[in-house]
Amino acid sequence: MTIEKRSSAFEYAPAPESRAVVDIAPSYGLFIDGEFVDAAEGRVFKTISPSTEEVLSEVAQAGEADVERAVKAARKAFEKWSALPGAERAKYLFRIARIIQERSRELAVLETLDNGKPIKETRDADLPLVAAHFFYYAGWADKLDHAGFGANPRPLGVAGQVIPWNFPLLMLAWKIAPALATGNTVVLKPAETTPLSALFFADICRQAGLPKGVVNILPGYGDTGAALVAHPDVNKVAFTGSTAVGKEIARTVAGTRKKVTLELGGKGANIVFDDAPIDQAVEGIVTGIFFNQGQVCCAGSRLLVQESIQEELLDSLKRRLSTLRLGDPLDKNTDIGAINSAEQLARITSLVEAGEAEGAERWSPACELPSSGYWFAPTLFTNVTQAHTIARDEIFGPVLSVLSFRTPDEAVAKANNTQYGLSAGIWTEKGSRILAVANKLRAGVVWSNTFNKFDPTSPFGGYKESGFGREGGRHGLEAYLDV
Amino acid sequence: MPTTASTALPLKDVTASDSTLRRYLHGLPGVDAVGLEARAASLGTRSIKTTAKAYAIDLAISMVDLTTLEGADTAGKVRSLGAKAVRPDPTDRTAPATAAVCVYPDMVAVAKEAVAGSTVKVASVATAFPAGRAAIGVKLADVRDAVAAGADEIDMVIDRGAFLAGNYLKVYEEIVAVKEACGASARLKVIFETGELSTYDNIRRASWLGMIAGADFIKTSTGKVAVNATPANTLLMLEAVRDFRAQTGVQVGVKPAGGIRTTKDAVKFLVVVNETVGEDWLDNHWFRFGASSLLNDLLMQRQKLATGRYSGPDYVTVD
Fold first, then answer.
1. Which of A288, A293, A244 is nearest to A265 (CA)?
2. What are the φ and ψ backbone dihedral angles of A403, each rounded to 5 degrees?
3. In whole angstroms, how far apart are CA B128 and each of A212, A221, A227, B166?
4. pLDDT higher than threshold 70 for residue B5
5. What is the DSSP string of A198-266?
6. Is A13's CB within 8 Å of B47's CB?
7. What is the pLDDT of residues A64-115, one digit of tens each?
8. Do B212 and B176 form a contact (C-beta atoms < 8 A)?
9. What is the distance, to the nearest Å, from the Cα of residue A123 to the centroid of all Cα atoms in its chain?
10. Catalytic one among B84, B112, B179, B219?
11. Do residue A2 and residue B119 have CB atoms under 8 angstroms apart?
12. A173 vs A333: CA distance, rounded Å
C-alpha cells in the first residue's frame, strides 16, 4: 500500500479571512470636531482594493475650507485637552488601545482590503504594534515631568500630521499617540489610497468618548496635506512619506515657528559577513525587503554580501524566494500581497527597467500573478554596482539589489554611500564586529542578526535625506513638547 | 535520484584527525536561535485543510515508525504492533501502512514475522539505547544481533559524552563502525539526542558529523528525555541534509522522534519539510516520524475527514 504521489506534492488549501467581520459603508465624510461631515466643496474620491481593483467606498475629499474648520476645532479643543491632568489623558489613550485590541481582527481585514498587504502582516505585525503604541504613550502621559525634558514641559498646540499608505494605521498610531499623550490636538491627513482605517479610527475615538475636536481626520490628496502644513495656526508638522514631499514641506515651514519632524525615504544596507548564520540571514533578507512588498521606508533594499559567500548565499536566497506565496492578501498562507496602487506599480516597473537597461541581472522565481489588481513578483538584481540607479534610488517595491564587498571597511563605505540613512542590518556571529560596524553606520536604526523589528519603546528616524526627528520611545515625546 | 550514503565517505579529508574534524565542524555556519525558532513558528501557521489535509494525513501515516520501547514489551505486544503497522485502520483498508515498526533488538525476530509480506520495515534501536553508555564492542554486538535477526534499519544513539567533550573523532569512528556492522542490508539512523546536545550549533555539527560518517538518516532524539523533536531542531537538521546533498550529492533522511502526538503537530513538521527541502524528502524513504501515539490521532482525523464526524478513541485500536 503506497500513497499516490501528487504532481505538486503539497498544495495548501486557501484559507481566506472572512470579510464579514468588517462593515465598510458606501461613503464616508471628513471627521471634524467629533462629527462625520461632508467636504465644503462636496468633492469625493474612491478608494479601491489593490488586490482586486474593487471600489471599497467613496470618501469625502478635504479642501482648504475643511482644513480651516478642522484646525479651528483642534485649536478650540486644545484649551481643555492640554489642561487635563496627564492621568486623565492617559485614561483615554488606554481606552483607545483596548478598543483597538478588541477590534483588531476587523481592523486587520480592513487594512488588508484597503492596502493590499497580506493579512498575516496586518494581523500579526501592524495591529499589535498599533495597540502597543497607544499603550506605551498612555503610560507616558502622566510622567512627562520625568521624561528628561525639564519640569512641566508644555504641549505645542495643534499638530498637523500627514501619513503614508504603506502602514496606514501604524503610522497614524506613531503620530497620534505621542501627540495626545503630551496634550496636543491633532489634524491628520491619511493617504488618498488608504483612508479607511483612519476613518475607522475616528469611530474608535467616538467610542472611547474622546472630547470633540481632539482628533480630526481629513482624507485627501497632496493639496490637502499642503494646505494643512501651511496653515498658520498649526504649531507642529509631522510627516512620513517621500523625500521629495518632505523637502517641499521643509520649504513651506522654513522661517515659521512650526516644529517639524520628517521621516522620509531610505535605501537600507543589509550587510552579510562570511561568518553569518546563513539560513537565518536568508530569512532576514527576505523580511528586510519582501515585508509589505518592500513598501517600507526602512527596507533592507541593498544586500551587501561578503564576496567569499556570495554564491552560496544567493543560491540559498533564490531557493527561499521560490517558496514565497504571492496572491490573495486575505489568505493566511499569502506571503506577498498586492502593490498599493497602479501609480506605485508603474514606478517600480520603470525603476526595474532602468536596472535592466543599465546592465544589472534580473531574477524572479517562477510566479503566477493574478489577472486583476496590482502585482509585482519578488525580484532580485545581481551584478549591481554603486553606480546603478537601482543601488541609489529608493524603489519602494519587492526589489532587492545585491552588491558585494571584501572587507568590513569596504562594507561600511558602501553602506554609507547613499543619500539616505534610515536603516541598516549586520549579519555576523562575531559580537565585536556587530558593535564595531554598527558604530560606523550612518543610519537611524541598525539591526543585528534580525531586520524590520519594531517596538514602541525604540526611537525611529533618519540621517541625511531620510529626514530628521525621532518617533517612538522617550525621544518621540520631544517632537510634541516645548522643550 | 541521488545515491544513498555509502561507505565511500564523502569529505574524507576532514576526518584525518580530531583537529581537522573539529576545525571543519566549528567552521560550519552558526545558528541564530531567535531566527531559527521564528522561522519554524511562521511555518506552523500555514493552513492545511480539506484535500491538502487528507494528503498530509496519509503521507504522515506512511512515515510513522510505530514504536514500542518499553522494558515491559512482550512478544504479544510487538505482534499486535506489527499487525497495526500493516493495517492501521481495520475499518478502512485505504489507510496506508506505516513505514516501520521500531523495537528493541531482542524483539526484531518477532516484529519481522509480524510484518512479513508487507512493505513495513523493522527498525531496531541497537547500540545500548537509549544512553549509549557501553563499550564499542557491546554496541556492535547489539547491532549485529539485530541485523542477523532481520532488522531493515538500525537506530543508533551517539556517545553524547564524547561529543560534548569535543571528541568528535571518537563519535565519528563509532558511527563508521556501526554503519559497517549494518552491512548492505540495513539502513542506519543516527540519533543525536538533541535535548542533551543543548545548543543549535551543536545540533548542526552533530548532523554533519553523522552524515560524513555515513548515516542514512539523522534523527533528533530517543524520546526518553525532556526535550525531543521540535519544529526548530527538525528545521535545522533539514537545512543540514539539504546543504549536505548540495555539497556531496548524497541524500540523507531525517527523523524527528519523541513528543509528536497530534495530527496538527505532524502536519506542521511536513510543512517544514515541504518549504525547506521540498518534494524530494516528502516520502517515507527520506522522512519519518518516530512516534507511538501519533498514529491513532492521525487515524481519528482521517476518519473524521472521511465521515464528517469525529469518532473517538474507541474507534481506533490500542497497541
1. A244
2. -125, 165
3. 76, 74, 80, 21
4. no
5. HHHHHHHHHHTTPPTTSEEE----HHHHHHHHH-TT--EEEEES-HHHHHHHHHHHTTSS-EEEEE---
6. yes
7. 999 999 999 999 999 999 999 999 999 999 999 999 999 999 999 999 999 9
8. no
9. 15
10. B219
11. yes
12. 27
Q: Do A11 and B50 touch (CB under 8 A)?
A: no
| Assigned C-alpha cell, B241 | 541534509
Q: pTM score, two decimals?
A: 0.93
Residue indicated by cell numbers 498612555: A138
Is residue B8 very low, low, confident or very high in pLDDT (cuts 50, 70, 90)? very low
**Rounded to whole angstroms, how far apart are CA atoms B236 and B248?**
18
Q: Kindly write down the DSSP assignment for every residue of B116-138, as one continuous string.
A: TTSS-EEEE--SSTTT--S-HHH
Cell readout for B271 is 510543512
B105 phi-psi bin (left φ>0, alpha ψ -120 to 50, beta other): alpha
Q: Which of A13, A277, A279 sits opposite B48 (nearest CB)?
A: A13
> End-to-end CA distance of chain A, in Å?
77
Q: Residue B302 CB: number of other CB atoms within 10 A?
A: 25
Q: Residue A108 belongs to what H/E stretch?
A: helix A104-115
d(CA B303, CA B91): 9
Residue B154 pairs with which residues in a beta bridge?
A: B124, B188
Residue A34: count other Cβ atoms within 10 Å of its Cβ.
17
Mean pLDDT of A231-257: 97
- Give residue B312's pLDDT: 86
CB-closest option in A10, A275, A450 to B35: A450
